[in-house]
Amino acid sequence: MLFYDRLSRKPRLFHSFTGLSVKQFDNIFKEIQSKYPKYEVKRLSPSRKERRRERTVGAGRHFKLLVKDRVIMVLVYYRLYITYTLMEFLFGLDQSNVCRDIQKIERLIRSCLPIPQKLYKVTRRLKTKEEVEQYFPGFMAFTDCTEQPIPRPKNRKRKSKFYSGKKKKHTVKNLYTANQKGLLIYKTKHRQGGRKHDYNVYKKNHPELPKDVMAMYDLGFLGVEKDYPEQKSLLPIKKEKDHELTEAQKEYNKIHSAKRIVIEHAICRIKKYRIMNDIFRNRLRKYNMMSDIVSGLVNYMIMSDS
Question: Does one domain contain both 139 and 106?
Fold first, then answer.
């Protein structure tokens, strides 16, 4: 069975299956373990809308796996995005138990990770240049969108809204902003991918960056300099029809791409978790929480390495 005690003896496999080193996992699990008792009491306590709970907290069906092994199971599922049938075989559970165990602990894992929303709340309150440089080294930020395919919707209107002519698939879209280290500072909720242009997503859901920070974009964000003059923006030079770029302009675009590659690498780290790369088989209402967890894992790895 694929338990922590067995998997931790093989660090290379541990990293391949979870995306974390054994040391990184142990550090983050300490926080998860400390919050788990209160989390369980809160989860099992009835809400105001519900009737008064008749059974005491802790009664009823217990989890078959230890908390540590349940966290491992979530990471393996996110990293490999295998079916519940294979998860059932690897962890010695029924499919229903696999689904239940993952659902019941996802919110706790999310609360323990440095998700972009937490970092964005901090960056919006930055005042001095020293504080800004701490979160934006070199006073630079990089923004881009990414698409992920979803199953073909059955509803005709949803088919039209989610269909991407570029990808020839039905997709959802996310917008990310990262600093020079690749740390994800901002992330939007998922949007209809197909008919939404990158810049349209940006106009409705864009981060408020400190005035000293230079934001870099690709050509998908043309118009940002005109629409947001208060923000420092830098875009590549677009080639005009029947006019070739000069050597100086080509060199400028080359330097721009070399700097902006940071956001491409950040998105690549996200997509190494196949739950954010393959066709998203789960319910779309769970997409935002799952993308938060993956973004938080990417941030945690970068922060632990620095």
Answer: no
The confidence band for 50, taking pLDDT boundaries of 50, 70 and 90, is low
pTM of the full structure: 0.92
The alpha carbon of residue 184 and the mean position of all alpha carbons in its chain are separated, in whole angstroms, by 8
Domain annotation covers residue 172: yes
Kindly tell me the burial class for residue 301, based on how many C-beta atoms sit within 10 Å of its own C-beta (0-12, 13-18, 19 or more): middle
CB 165 within 8 A of CB 147: no
Instruction: Point out the domain boundary residue: 67, 83, 111.
Output: 111
Do 128 and 160 belong to one domain? yes
Q: Mark whether 142 and 265 lie in a shared domain.
A: yes
Could you read off the pLDDT of 182-209 as tens digits, one per residue? Answer: 999 999 999 887 677 889 889 988 899 9
How far apart CA 261 and CA 178 sit, in angstroms, is: 11
Both structure tokens of 141: 């930020």
Instruction: With respect to residue 195, please indicate whether it lies within any of the assigned structural domains.
Output: yes
